[in-house]
Each structure stands twice: as C-alpha cells, then as structure tokens.
C-alpha cells in the first residue's frame, strides 16, 4: 500500500502555525507487564527507562499493516520498533514491508533484521514513520536530533502520511528547549564558527549557548558530512515557529531539530501506563 503523492505532508501555512494544535488523548493502556493489581504495582515500579521505551515502540508497531512503506526512525526508542518490525516480518505476522531508514545506523540494524529497504528516492511516498524524540511539548511539537540524525529524519517524516512519535515520559516538557539539553542544528562545515556565532546571536533563540558537537577531539560529522551546533537554553524557546523560520533563513544552516506541526500521534510510556495522544 503506497500513499499517493498528495498525501505527503507539506509545510503548514504561516497562518496556522501559531495556532495551538488540538491534542486529544485517544487511549490510555495500563502497562503490558501488569497482570494483577498487586503485580501491577511491583512491575510498574520496576520498569526501567529502556522498558518504557520498548512499551511505546511496540504500541506504535500496532499501527503497521502489511504492504506499508515505513519510515524507520533513529535512536534507542526507534530501535525497539525496528527490532519488533523485523521480528513480525520473520514470523510472518507482517508481509511486504519496505523500510526507509533515517540514518546509516538504522539502515544497518534493519538490514541485519532482514527488513527490505529502499531510499526516499525509490519510495518517496511513505505510509507511516515511527521515531523517537528528545523533547515533546503539550502541542506534540518536538525536538529531535540529539542522536545526530535530524536531517534525514525530517526528510523522511515530512514525506510520511502519518508520523507516530514514541517516547518515555522523561521527554515531556512544558515548552521546547525546556529540558536544558541540546537543541541540535545541522550546519555545513564551511566556516562553521561564523554560523555558530550567528546562531548564538539570533534574537529568536536569545539567551542560548551554542556549542559545536564533538566526537572525541574532532567535530562530530553527520551522515550527510555536516557538523552539528547544539543550542542550550536556560528557559524554553518563546516562539519555536519564529525560531525555526529564522534558522531556515540562514545560509549554511542545513536544518534544525525543531519538528513543528509534524507529529500526528505521540505514544508516551510512563510508570502508570501507555498514553496515546493525537493531533486533530
Ligand atoms: O537523532 C536522533 C533522533 O532524533 C532520536 O529520535 C532522538 O534523539 C531520540 O532518541 P532516543 O530514543 O535514543 O532518546
């Protein structure tokens, strides 16, 4: 089942960007590990962050149907979804899946699991993308890219009819930038200091500290041969749409980790259970 080209998302019109998304909680499922009331308490308390990530990932795979073209996300949460898809293909529950990986890492994992793969050039119309996030705000706008895969993720997820984001509850923030951890920006290598300075001084992200991401004693290089500047905020970004627009207008900035108006469904696994939130 391949989505028609018209079904792929296009950037939201400027007028709708500042409107708060309507987000509804569609369902709340107690954790799968709960078997009895007594057991439930014991299990929930014992769940690690990785187990919560797996809960969210497995729930997202319920959206996968045979015949779909899938965007395969990157990161520790998405890896659980990729593994699950591989296993369901192996045991015959799923058939005729084609995966479009969002990083070399995910390509290697999916290939190892025997998932048939294609590039975005070969499969530009994706039915469903499943991926993790670093921060999720109440509108289901997210920060992505702490694993360095933001550019390919954004390309694949923009080309997807539906984007299901999977997180554990530690990723929830009141406003993007609020975790006081990195908001990544992918930049060209050429004169990177010039762009780092410009990012640091950009009024729309005022007050941030910009740092070149390192890999040991060398700059970190993305799958696309670019560098990453991580922006650290003391307070949440005031207007994420304005910040995104400002960065998109800068020469040498390839892309940024603000994924706005993109997530259709967010699956959040917490100690109490798994919550499914939908953007309407
Ligand atoms: O570049 C990495 C991706 O955007 C990841 O989806 C994101 O960093 C979340 O990763 P994790 O699931 O490992 O927390």
Automatic annotation (TrEMBL):
InterPro entries found in the cross-reference section: NagB/RpiA_transferase-like, Ribose-5P_isomerase, Ribose5P_isomerase_typA_subgr, Ribose5P_isomerase_type_A
Biological or metabolic pathway of the protein: Carbohydrate degradation; pentose phosphate pathway; D-ribose 5-phosphate from D-ribulose 5-phosphate (non-oxidative stage): step 1/1
Matches recorded under Pfam families: Rib_5-P_isom_A
Catalysed conversion reaction: aldehydo-D-ribose 5-phosphate = D-ribulose 5-phosphate
The enzyme's E.C. designation: 5.3.1.6
Molecular-function GO term, any one: ribose-5-phosphate isomerase activity
Keyword presence, Nuclease: no
Keyword match Metal-binding: no
GO BP annotations, alphabetical order: pentose-phosphate shunt, non-oxidative branch
Keywords, comma-separated and alphabetical: Isomerase
Family per record: Belongs to the ribose 5-phosphate isomerase family.
Record NCBIfam families: PRK00702.1, rpiA
HAMAP family registered for this protein in UniProt: Rib_5P_isom_A
Protein name as catalogued: ribose-5-phosphate isomerase
């Amino acid at each position: 089942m391949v989505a028609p080209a018209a079904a792929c998302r296009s950037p939201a019109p400027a007028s709708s960007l500042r409107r708060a998304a309507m987000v509804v909680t569609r369902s709340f499922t107690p954790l799968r590990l709960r078997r009895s009331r007594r057991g439930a308490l014991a299990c929930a308390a014992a769940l690690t962050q990785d187990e919560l990530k797996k809960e969210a990932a497995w729930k997202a795979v319920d959206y996968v149907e045979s015949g779909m073209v899938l965007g395969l996300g990157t990161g520790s949460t998405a890896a659980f979804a990729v593994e699950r898809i591989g296993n369901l293909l192996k045991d015959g529950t799923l058939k005729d899946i084609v995966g479009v990986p969002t990083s070399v890492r995910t390509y290697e994992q999916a290939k190892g699991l025997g998932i048939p793969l294609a590039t975005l050039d070969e499969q530009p119309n994706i039915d469903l993308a499943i991926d993790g996030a670093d921060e999720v705000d109440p509108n289901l706008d997210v920060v992505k890219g702490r694993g360095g895969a933001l550019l390919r993720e954004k390309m694949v997820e923009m080309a997807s009819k539906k984007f299901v984001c999977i997180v554990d509850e530690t990723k929830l923030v009141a406003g993007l930038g609020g975790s006081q951890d990195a908001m990544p920006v992918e930049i060209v290598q050429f004169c990177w200091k010039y762009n780092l300075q410009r990012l640091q001084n950009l009024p729309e992200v005022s007050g941030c500290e910009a740092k070149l991401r390192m890999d040991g004693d060398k700059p970190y290089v993305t799958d696309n041969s670019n560098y990453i500047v991580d922006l650290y905020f003391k307070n949440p970004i005031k207007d994420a749409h304005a910040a995104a627009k400002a960065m998109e207008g800068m020469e040498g900035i390839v892309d940024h980790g603000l994924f706005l108006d993109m997530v259709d469904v967010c699956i959040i696994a917490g100690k109490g259970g798994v919550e499914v939130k939908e953007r309407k």
